[in-house]
Amino acid sequence: MEARNRKLSEWYGKIQQSEIKLPRFQRFEAWDRWRICSLIETVVRNLPLGITLILEVADEEKFISRHLVTAPELNGRVLEHLLDGQQRLTSLWRVFHNNYEFDTYFIYLKEFDKYEKDDGEELEDMSAFWRGRYYKKNGDRYPIWCDDPAQTLLRGLIPVQLLRPEDIQGEIDEWIDKATSQYEPKEGGRDELKKFYDFQKRVSDKIKDLRAVIANYNLPYLSLPSSTDKTVALNVFINMNTNSKPLSQYDIVVAEVEDVMDRSLHDLEEELNQSYPDVARYAPLSNQILNASSLLQGYLPNQRGAWDMDKRKMVEQWEVMAKGLNRMALFLKSEGIYDEQRLPTNAVLAVIAALYADIPMSGDKRGRDELLLKKYLWYAFFTDRYENSAATHAFADFKALGGVIRNDVKQDGKKYTEADVPIFNEYSIVEAEELITVEWPKRTTIRGRAVLAVASRLGAFDFSTGERLDLNNISQRQYHHVFPDALLKEAGINSFLALNCALISDKTNITIGRKDPLRYLKDRYDWTTEAIVQERLQSHLIPILELANGGYADMSDKEKAEKMKTDFNLFLKKRAELIIKALKLFVDGRQLSAKDLYEG
Q1: Do 592 and 514 belong together in one domain?
Q2: What average pLDDT is seen over the chain?
Q3: Whether residue 182 sits in one domain with residue 66
C-alpha cells in the first residue's frame, strides 16, 4: 500500500456530501480544546499531520456507519469508511463551522491586534485561540464580543469558520465590512479613505492566504480496497488505533460484534441502560456486559475472557445477560448496596448476574436460590476470597454455585452442594478482632466498605432527619466520625477506622471542646427524645453504652488521652461484635432489624 495525496478541500467536500462516514464501532469525539488548537495550527502553518486510513465502499457498506458529528446527514451513496483519522477530520469539520456550543475558535494575527489588555502572555502570530462560551438567563451567549466582527478583529482574531474550503465570499465580505467599519473615516480626504481601503484589503488578503493554505493542505491517506475482507479491515483498524491511542477492551469487542453480527454494540448498550438504569450504578456498564457475557459462555470474567468468548453468541444471549444484570441490581438494592462507591468488591457483579440465568422469576426455588446468593454476597464481603486473583476465584465460585442452583451432578455421581463452593469451604468469615483495624470505608478496601454495608443493610437512619438510608438519598450521605475526629486527634488516636464511621447527611460542625462523644452528638443533632437518640444510633449498630463513657471535661491531657484510648477501644470492640452478629444472620438469609441485635 502506498499513501495517496488528498487536499483538505476534497476531504471537506466528501464529508459535506455524506460520501465518507464512520463505522459505528469507532469511538466518539475525544479531543480537548488544546489538541484542537494544535491541529488548527498544524494545518495553517502547513506542517505534516500524519496518515489517515479509509476503507473503500462498493455497492454495500461492510459496517454499520454513522455521520461525523454535525456533518450533513444526506442519503447519497457512501464511498468510503474512515477507519483512522476520525478525531482530526471531526475536529476540522466542526471548527470550520465553529459549532462547538461552549467554545469558539479563532486564528490570531498580530498585525491586526489593537486591543488594550493587561500585561500577560502574548499570543504567537498565526496561533489558534479558543474562547469558552456560556449562556445567561436571558438566553444570550457570552462573551458577546466573540460574535461581533469589529470586536474580534480589534483583538487580532479571525473566526475559523471564514476559512472553511467552500465558496463563501459573500459571508467573508460581509464580515470584513462589519469588522472594519469602526476604522472608516467619517470625514477627511482621499488619503484617509485610501488608508481605510488598504486596511480592508490587507484583512481580505490575509483571509484569502489562509483559505488557500487550508484548501490546498495535503492530508494523505491509505486506502483499503472495497474487496478487503471485513475481518482484515477490522484487524487493520485495531492495529492502527493501538499504535496511537490504545483501544479499550470494550472498543475491540465492539468492533468484533460489528464484524460477526452487523449489530451495533453501542446501540444495544444504550437500550440496556434505558431499560435497566440502575445497573450502571455499580460499575461501568461496558465492563459488566463483558464480564457477565464471559461467564455465561464459560470464560473468566476479565479481559481474556472477553476476547475469547464467541461474539455472535454474546449477542444471541443478550436478553439473558441484560435481565441478569437487572436482577443483580435489584438484589443488591435489597441487600442495602446502592452504588459503586459503597460496593465492597465488584467481583460479585458478574457472578450474580450470570447465575440469574438459572434462577426462576418467582416461587419457592427463587427464594432458595436467593438465600444462596445472600450467603455468597456476604462471604465475598467478609472473607479474603477476592483480595487477590478475583477473576479466577469468581469463575470457580460461579461454576460451583451454578451447579448447586441447577441441581447438577458431579463426576462422582453426587449432586453439587454448598460444600463444593470454594468461597464457603475454603474461607472463614473474619473475626471481630480483625474489623477493629479496618480502614476508613471511603477508601477502596473491601473490608472497610463491608463494615459500612452492614449498617446500610439495616437501614441506617439519618441522625438529623431520621430518614432511612435508601437508593434515593444515598448520594446525600456523608462519612461521619462517631467518636469525634478532633477529640481523638488530641489523644493521638487514629480516628479514620471503618468502625468509627456512620453514613449520614452532612451538618456543620459545632464547637466540640472537651465534650464526650455522646454529648457532642446530642448537641449537634436535633434528636428530640432519648428514645430517638437510641433508635437512630442503634440503626448504625453504634453501641450506646460504650459511646457514653465520657467524663473527659475535667481531666488533664494525659488522663484524658488514656481514658479516651480505653473508651475508644471498648467502643470498637463492641461495635465489631455487633457487626459480626448481624453478618452471621445475613449469611443465613435472616430479615432483621438493628433492634433485634441489641435484644438478642
Answers
A1: yes
A2: 89
A3: yes
